[in-house]
Amino acid sequence: MKLRRATRELAALGDELMRKRDATGARTIRGSLRGQEVRVVCPEDFVILKILATRERDLEDARSVIDKQTGRLDMALIARELTSLTSEITDHDISGRLARLRP
User: Fold this and answer.
1) What is the CB-side half-sphere exposure of residue 75 using CA atoms within 13 A?
2) What's the CA gap between 76 and 91, in Å, rounded?
3) Distance separating alpha carbons of residues 51 and 54, to the nearest angstrom
4) 78 CA to centre of own chain
5) How many domains does the chain have?
6) Backbone angles phi, psi at 60, to 5 degrees
7) Angle at the Cα of 22 (from 55 to 16), degrees rounded to 5?
């Protein structure tokens, strides 16, 4: 199932991001799914995680969220988080990937 595969991929990236950014945990969204409490990352963190991933498909996913959440996303937060991660993750073109998503 695509959702399970995506969840595993994001979990690995999310674990790394959570270790680096304690504030990310405060931005989780709680809800209910099939009677079970679930916590998911907020849309801004989802976009951040997708930019940190390496596949083209991840950028498409990030673009989809940006398009659907126009006017509701905190793009400044996304830019700040990614800028701070750029100095910590030097082998990945974070700035370039973000620039490709900006209108």
Assistant:
1) 14
2) 23
3) 7
4) 9
5) 1
6) -65, -40
7) 30
Reference 93, options 32, 49, 37, 52; nearest CA is 52
Residue given tokens 């930019």 in the structure block:
51
Output Rg (C-alpha) for the chain, integer angstroms. 13
Residue 32 lies in domain:
2-101
The token pair at 39 is 């916590």
Longest Cα separation, the chain? 42
Q: Which residues contact 84 (CB under 8 A, 6 or more apart)?
A: none
* Per-residue pLDDT tens over the stretch 28-81: 888 888 898 888 889 999 999 999 998 999 999 999 999 999 899 999 999 999
CA distance 19 to 16: 5
Decide: 11 and 21 in contact? Cβ < 8 Å. Answer: no
